[in-house]
Design a protein that fits this description.
The protein has 105 residues and is an alpha/beta fold. The protein is built from five helices and four strands. A four-stranded parallel sheet has the order 2-1-3-4, sandwiched between helices.
């Protein structure tokens, strides 16, 4: 099972997006582990699970951390991007899932 990691300021605000993404993945028959962590925990998450992580998405509120975190994810060859703010704000899990899957392809 591959992982999609969402990072936000505390790991809390993205939990609703995660729920919607999980629903969209299930409807498509995709077996993914999608979860949210605090952005400052990303380094530890990568050290523990890099081989299983397919993509990392940053919440719009931590978009300013993209360059810093890209250096981390590049070490493991894992794509990273900022979640589309409209999809995030409207809790469009399907669109955020599409964004994550597009990173992997």
């Amino acid at each position: 099972m591959k992982r999609i990691v969402l990072c936000c300021s505390a790991g809390m605000s993205t939990s609703l997006v995660v729920t919607k993404m999980e629903k969209a993945a299930a409807e498509r028959g995709l077996e993914l582990k999608i979860y949210a962590i605090a952005e400052q925990s990303l380094r530890d998450e990568l050290q523990s699970y890099a081989a299983e992580i397919s993509a990392v998405l940053l919440g719009p509120q931590v978009r300013f951390k993209l360059a810093e975190n890209k250096k981390l994810t590049d070490e493991y060859g894992i794509p990273i991007d900022v979640i589309d703010s409209v999809a995030y704000g409207t809790l469009n899990g399907a669109k955020v899932l599409d964004q994550a899957l597009a990173l992997v392809r």
